[in-house]
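Consider the following input, taken from an annotated entry for Phosphoribosylaminoimidazole-succinocarboxamide synthase (Halalkalibacter oceani).
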Amino acid sequence: MEKGVLLYEGKAKKIYQTSEENQLWVSYKDDATAFNGEKKETLAGKARLNNEISSLLFAHLQKSGIESHFIKKLSETEQLVQKVEIIPLEVVTRNIVAGSLSKRLGMEEGTPLKTPIVEFYYKDDDLGDPLVTEDHIAILEAASSEDLAVLREKAIAVNEQLVTLFDELNIRLVDFKLEFGRTDDGEILLADEISPDTCRLWDKDTNQRFDKDLFRRNLGSLQEGYQEILTRLGGASCTK
Ligand code: C5P
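Applying the prediction step yields:
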């Protein structure tokens, strides 16, 4: 497998072509950004931690029958994935009130929700990824209502698996963001990453944060929090 030309560089990952037409080479970066890129730092080891954690979570979901673009881990910081056309929506699932939901509805952070909720945000940096309704998504032609039903169903299925997995590790899965893509055959496939960059993960006993809020809110070492997640998932400890 050969790494080809750089196709795209995002805030946390670089995507390269490969010698296989329908496969892409993902390289995680050590960069951390928040507030739509306003806060930015390079944090040594973050690429490795997110790549390891994301690989473990995608592999776990695959074992549970939830397919994704993930093919295999290529190195400490790289993955091979199936090529998809990303649907321009961020699909956020929430089990506990936190972050923007707390601000938007004036609900106290930490309040458990009776049932999980799913929200859609339009992926557009210039607009700051706004929360969108089904009607907004229709006029933006971002996805059909049938697609939205599939995204919601897949997000809830991922939530069920991950809530159970993290619960066994004494961690609360507060909320998380997923992205999906379309394959050449038109199938909707889970894509992007699932990591402490894209999830809120709290210790069940102490509510200690092990996620990107450590960086967003200056709550402590991001690497130490992410390493705790990797360790509890059974991954290797960071020696570099
Ligand atoms: O900020 P907010 O409360 O809406 O975030 C909900 C969840 O989605 C959090 O787990 C956050 O890390 C994730 N998220 C993300 N990328 C974004 C926005 C939110 O991964 N652009």
